[in-house]
Amino acid sequence: MSNYKHIGKDFVPPDITGKVTGKARYAEDFRADGMVFARLYTSPMAHGRVTNIDTSALDGMEGIVGILTADDVPAVEAPNAAILTNTPVYIGDPILAVAAEDEKTAEDALARIRVHIEPMPFTVDPLDSLIEGGPNAREEGNVFSRSSEGSGFRTVKWTPQQIADFRAGKEPTGEWVNEWRYGDLEKGFADAAVVVEEPFVTTGYAHMSMEPRTAMAYWDNGRCYVYGSAQSQSFWIPGLARLLGVEQKDVVLISEHTGGGFGSKIGAYPIAALPGWFSKKIGRPVQLRITREQEYYIGSARVGFQGWIKMGFAASGKITAADIFIVEDIGPNATGGDASSAGGAVSLVYDPESLRFRGLPVLTNTTPRGAQRGPGQNQIAAVMAPLMDKAARQLDIDRLEIRKINAVNNDSTVYENQEPVTSAYMKEALDKGAEMFDWATKRNKPKTNGSKVIGIGIGQGYHSAGTKGFDGLLRITPDGKIHLHSGVGNLGTYSYASTTRAAAEVLKCDWEDCVIERGSTDANLPWSSYQAGSVSIFAHTRTNYVAALDAVQKMKQIAAESLGGNASDYDIDGKNVFNVKNPRQSISYGGAAARAIQLGGSYSGAVYPDDIHEITKRSVERLAGSGLIGVAKDNLEQNGVIPGLACAFVEIELDLETGKYDILDYVGIAECGTVVHPQGVEAQMKGGAVWGMGMASLERHVYDPHNGLPANVGYYQCGIPTYLDTPLHIRTAAVDLPDPQNPFGARGIGEPAMGCSVAAVTSAISDALDGHVFGRTPISRDMIINHVAEREQSFKPLQTNNF
Amino acid sequence: MSLNINGKIRRVDVLPQETLAYTLRYKLGLTGTKIGCNRGECGACTVLVDDIPNYSCSTLTHSVRSRGVLTVEGLQAPDGTLHPVQQAFIDELAPQCGFCTPGQAMAAVGLLKDNPNPTREQARQALSGNLCRCGAYDNYLNGVMRAAGGKA
C-alpha cells in the first residue's frame, strides 16, 4: 500500500546468518584471559536469616580462587533484590558465590560449604498471607505498594469470612490499597440488561528463556566490561552502573545476542553485576553462568492474579460498567504492577462506559516476579474472553458482534484519565480475522462427534506499543557507507535492524550501503528505549527518522556551501546530493562526509544538540571527526495512548474423555499500524500465539505450601509448549493501516500477539463446554475432565499451587 | 583421544564423565552447540552422531570415539555456501533469539538425511525434541519443508 523503499519490505537481518551457522556469540561464548568460573550457592529455604557461613572446608582446596558473600556487595533496601543476601526471601535466592579455575571445582566447592540459616515464616499463596494470622513474606509486611504518591510496606489482613466470601465468588470486602476509576459505575450497572460476575485465577509461571543467563566481567583502566544476557542495550547502562557502584561512563556492556528475555532482562538485573564485584575482589575476569534450575529461581516469573470481576452490558451489547478487583502475587521483591495494567487493558480493549479498578499487591516467598510478555494485559485477556462470550449468549448476540460493538476505535478514550488513542482499528482486525477464519460458517458447524467436541473462540490482545523521547544517531563515512547506530538491543525480534530502515528510507539509500552498529557500548550507541513493552518499532523508527532528517539537512548545507546556492535548492537520491534545478551540480554522500570532517562543528559531531542524553553525547564525542553525523532527540509530537492490538480466532477439538484438545485452526491478526517488517510481524504473531497456547492450558508455577519448595524447575515440569502442543499451521495477517503519530505509521505488536491467543483459546474451551467459565489459567486436562464428570475440582476456589 | 568432528580428526584430552557438549564447547571451541538445560530436555545441544540427532549434553564424549560427529559448524560447504536447511531458516526468518537454532538445524538435517521428503507432520515429530521459547515452531517447520523442497 505504500511506495516505501524499505518500510514494509522484508530484508535479511545482518545477525541471522550467525544464528544458523553457530557463529552468533551469546554471553557465555565470550572468554577473557585468566577468566575464572563462578557458581552460586542459593537458599534452600523460602525465608530465613543466615547466621553462619563456614567455608573452612575450602581452605587449601586446589583451584579455588575466591568467595563472594553479601558482605562484599552493596546492601539494598527491602523489598528490592540484592546481588547476594543474608536474608533470603525465596528458595533459590543467591547467598554466596565461589570462583574457581574451572566450573567443576566451583560446583564441588559449593557442596562443601556449610551455611546455617534460621528459618522464618513464609507464604506461597497471597490469600494464605492475607487471612488473619497468616504469615507475612517479609518482616516489614505482606503488602508493598508502589505509587507516585509514595511506595511502602503495609500489613493488610482480611477476616476468614472475607476470604471465604472472596473464594465463593462474592465481591471482595477486604481492604485494598490501589484504586482508580472513571465514569459512573453505579449508573452503569443500573442501566445494564445483563450482569456477569466471576472470580478468577491466573497462575504465575516462569519466563523460561532458553539461554541460562550469563555474565562475564573484568575491569580495565577503571572501566567495567560486562558481557551480559540483556534484552536492551543502552537502556541497561544506568541500572548496571548503579548496581556496580560506578558512573555510567565507566560501564561497557557487550551484548551481541541474547537467548530470550520476554521481559525478564529489560533492565540490568542484580546477578548481572555479580561478576563485576567478584572480578574487582579477586582481580581476574569472572564468568557466572547460572544453571537451568537456577533460571527458575532468579529468571523471573509472571505475576499471578486472584481476582473478581463484574461487568454490566446494555441490551445493545455495549459494556456499561466494569468493576475489577485483583489480588496480585508480586513475589518477594514487589515487582509487577500487572494488576493495574490489567484494569487499563479492560478500559482500552473493551472501552466500557465506566470502570473501577481496585488492587492489592501481596508479597510471597516465591520466585521474583517481573514483566512478562503483556504483563497484566495478557492475564486479563484470558479472563475476559469467556465472559464476553457469556454475556453474548445471555443477550443473544453473536460473539464476534459483541466484540465489534465494544471495539476500541479512533474515538475511544481510555484509562483513568480517559485519554485519546493515537489510532485503533480493532473492528477492522476482527472483520479481517473473521473472514480468514470463516467465522460465519464455523459458528454454525455441528459441534460434537462422539467424545470429541468442537469449540471456536475469539481473543483480543493489547499492550501500549510505543514511547518517545529517545535519541537517533547515524554516521556517513567518506567511503559512502551509512552507519546506523542502534542502541535498542538484540532480543530476537529484529527490531534493532528494522527500525534503522527508517533512516535508510529517509536517506533513500540502498540497504547494501548501510552498516548497523550495535552490540556494545563501545560501538558508540545512542540512548535508546528498552527493548520491551512492544515499544521499539514506534520509538525507534522515530529516532532513526529524526537522525536521518538531521543528516540530510547537513548534507544539503554542505552541498550548498561547496557548490553554491542554498540548502533548499538541493535534494538527495540515495547516493548524491544534487541541485534540483541543475542535477549535474552534485556531491556524493561520501564526498559530503569528507567535507563534513573538514568543516567540523555539528557536521562532524564536534558540536551536538543540548537535549540529547549523556550516553548519546559520549558516543558522538567519540565519533566526532570520523564522518557526517546525524543526531537528534525524538521531539516529534506525541500525545495519547499508543495501542498495539491483535485479535485471534481459534478452532479446537476437545476430547471429553481425556480433557485433551487439538488446535485445528488458528488465525491471528495484527493491528500495529503500518507494517515495517512483514516477516518480523508474522514471527511475533506466531510466537505470541504459541505463548498464548502455553498460558491457556500448560504453564504454571506450583509451590509446596508446607516447605515453600518449587515443584517445577524444568522445562517440561513448567509446561513449556512444544511442537506437539501447537497446530501444524498458524495463519496470520495484519490490518496495516497507518498510525498518524509515527512518521511511517508504525506501532508495536510483540505482546498483543500473545494476549489474543490466550484469550481465543480460553474462549474456545468455554465454547466447547457449552459456555462453562473456568475462570482460571492454565485450564488443565484434569480440570476439564472433572467438569465433564461433574466432579469437584481438586483445589479450592481461588487456590494457587494446584496441580 | 581422537574425535571425528565435522570430518576432521581432533585430538583432545577428555575426562571419563565428560559430555560431548562440554568437549565441543569448552575444549574444541565449537560454541555453536548451545547448552540450554544440560539435562536432555531442550535439544539446543543437538548434534548428529553418524547422521543421527543426539543431545550432546547427554552423550559421553568417550562414547563417540569411533563415530562421526557433525555440529552446526560443519553444515556450511567449504566455499561458505549455506546448507539448504540453514538457508531455508533464513528465508523463513525462523530464528528469533536464535539460541535454539543450531539444535533445530541439526535435528532438521538429521531428519532430511533419513527422509528427504518428509510430510509436515513427520517434520513436526522429528523436531519435537527441540524446544523454542520464542515459539517459532511454525517458521522452523516452514524452513524444513522449504529445504526438503529445494532438495527435491
Beta-strand residue percentage of chain A: 15-25%
Tell me, what is the CATH class of the largest domain in chain A?
Answer: Alpha Beta
CATH fold descriptor of the largest domain in chain B: Ubiquitin-like (UB roll)
- What's the number of domains of chain B? 2
Tally of helical runs of chain A: 23
Structural class of chain B: alpha+beta
What's the CATH topology name of the largest domain in chain A?
A: Aldehyde Oxidoreductase, domain 4
Q: Key terms for this structure?
A:
heterodimer; A: 803 residues; alpha+beta; Aldehyde Oxidoreductase, domain 3; Aldehyde Oxidoreductase, domain 4; 3 domains; 7-stranded mixed sheet; 6-stranded mixed sheet; 23% strand; globular; B: 152 residues; Ubiquitin-like (UB roll); DNA polymerase, domain 1; 2 domains; 5-stranded mixed sheet; 5 helices; 35% helix; 12% strand
Describe this structure in words.
The complex is a heterodimer of chains A (803) and B (152). Helices cover 29% and strands 23% of the residues of chain A. Chain A has 23 helices and 31 strands. A seven-stranded mixed beta sheet of chain A has the order 3-4-1-13-10-11-12. Chain A has a six-stranded mixed beta sheet with strand order 8-16-15-14-9-31. The radius of gyration of chain A is 27 Å and the shape is globular. The mean pLDDT of chain A is 97. Chain B has 152 residues and is an alpha+beta fold. Chain B folds into two domains: 2-74, Roll (Ubiquitin-like (UB roll)); 84-151, DNA polymerase, domain 1. Helix content of chain B is 35%, strand content 12%. Chain B has a five-stranded mixed beta sheet, covered by helices on one side. In chain B, helix 2 crosses helix 5 (137-151). Classes of the chains: A alpha+beta (803), B alpha+beta (152). At the A-B interface, helix 1 and helix 20 of A face helix 2, helix 3, helix 4 and helix 5 of B.
Topology of this structure?
The complex is a heterodimer of chains A (803) and B (152).
Chain A: H1 16-21, E1 36-42, E2 48-54, E3 64-69, E4 94-100, H2 103-112, E5 114-119, H3 126-130, E6 143-145, E7 152-154, H4 160-167, E8 178-182, H5 185-190, E9 194-202, E10 214-220, E11 223-228, H6 236-244, E12 251-254, H7 270-282, E13 286-289, H8 292-298, E14 304-313, E15 319-329, H9 338-350, E16 355-362, H10 377-395, H11 399-405, E17 413-414, E18 419-420, H12 426-437, H13 439-442, E19 448-449, E20 452-464, E21 471-476, E22 482-485, H14 495-498, H15 501-507, E23 514-517, H16 536-563, E24 570-572, E25 576-579, E26 586-588, H17 589-599, H18 601-604, H19 614-623, E27 628-633, E28 643-655, E29 661-671, H20 678-697, H21 715-718, E30 731-734, H22 752-768, E31 776-777, H23 781-788
Parallel strand pairs in A: 1-13, 9-31, 11-12, 15-16, 22-23, 29-30
Antiparallel strand pairs in A: 1-4, 2-5, 3-4, 6-7, 8-16, 9-14, 10-11, 10-13, 14-15, 17-18, 19-20, 20-28, 21-22, 21-27, 24-25, 25-26, 28-29
Chain B: E1 2-5, E2 8-11, H1 20-27, E3 46-49, E4 52-55, E5 68-70, H2 84-91, H3 101-114, H4 120-127, H5 137-151
Parallel strand pairs in B: 1-5
Antiparallel strand pairs in B: 1-2, 3-4, 3-5
Helix pairs in contact in B: 2-5
